[in-house]
């Protein structure tokens, strides 16, 4: 019997089931809820949502407390501590302190696999300093649907080969440097018009289309050695006509992902509180169904102990009744324990690190983000850098800017070319600003949104540009699909508002590179 199997044999069924649960942590401190999940339910993992992430040292304090509790009062086994660091370890930190990379769409636009790998390396190194060892990233969905309400700029793009190449580069960057990567959202959430947070999306395509498109980046990720795949709450009638989301479907999770595609790593559910599941099932029911389908890790969102208890008890009851076999539980526990062994997350190999402030936000790490941003920035619709030097008096501009791109506004202000500026509460306010009368003289409009912008706002901007040719420039920190509504507006496309992209936008606007 292997050493791993010997450890599993010594576990109680409660301890085995506990290893399959990852619970959300929602606060900055080590809460009583988290203590209970670790001590009473022997949880195998904790997920840090945005409310848990303030600055690197705070995250380190939190994860260190969690790991100490797991070792001393919990299962005795180190935790998987996961986060959605989809754009660097700094992307979700409220007060920064680690590198915030451009979103995947900008990485795809940059088209540099070596830089994509480096972004993964930096993210892994900074995450581990904070105690995060498992990243629910990268998104390898192909976003070829302009109406997709959720994936958008989280995707590397709409070309399957580009998405595959960039996704694999990031995966290697994470895993070569000690952090588990997760390819998501299997079998593909890109060509959908429903957000699985709010309802169940359906992929209406036949097997031939899925094989030649949606599944390609997942196949490539598996070939690249990805250690985890997150299964989405997405129905695929061509492969399972029951209407079940893939996350709860044996045909999708075990039949397709495990057996046909040959994936041997960890299968993680997407968050089980999402409406793609809870519109039909309770989280407790979903936990049992996901394990029956073949999942290894249940991403369970309980707001309190009273909600968590029934989820764990539902799995234990299913085992005791024979609905779930003990063998099925052991299969997943073995995968969990083997992965923990691989990443030095067993008691004999694990140690809680001291926080090293010099290992995060390094200048050379920020330089990787800056290089990606400069490669991603793209001028379209006849965009040309503004001329502000030479013998001629430079043109004086008005700046209309979304409050979320303050760094960009600061950099433009420093050039001295502005006669006026107006801060907008959101991109939508630009319509009223323009309809109230275009400012005298030329205007720089800087807008951002994490989803597609309303067409009527963009059409108002296009109308103003058509009426005042050469007097409006759009600096767009959002979806490239938005620009179908602004054909008359010279524009600089950045895809996202990461700090490095705001810097690159200012540089490109004034011809600095």
From TrEMBL:
Keywords: Glycosidase, Hydrolase. One of its GO terms (biological process) is peptidoglycan turnover. Gene3D superfamilies: Glycoside hydrolase, family 3, N-terminal domain. Residues 12-338 form the Glycoside hydrolase family 3 N-terminal domain. It comes from the Bacteria. GO terms for molecular function: beta-N-acetylhexosaminidase activity. The keyword Hydrolase applies. InterPro entries: GH, Glyco_hydro_3_AS, Glyco_hydro_3_N, Glyco_hydro_3_N_sf, NagZ_Beta-hexosaminidase. It catalyses: Hydrolysis of terminal non-reducing N-acetyl-D-hexosamine residues in N-acetyl-beta-D-hexosaminides. Pfam families: Glyco_hydro_3 (PF00933). The keyword Hydrolase applies. Belongs to the glycosyl hydrolase 3 family. PANTHER family: BETA-HEXOSAMINIDASE, BETA-HEXOSAMINIDASE-RELATED. This is beta-N-acetylhexosaminidase. It comes from Paenibacillus hemerocallicola.
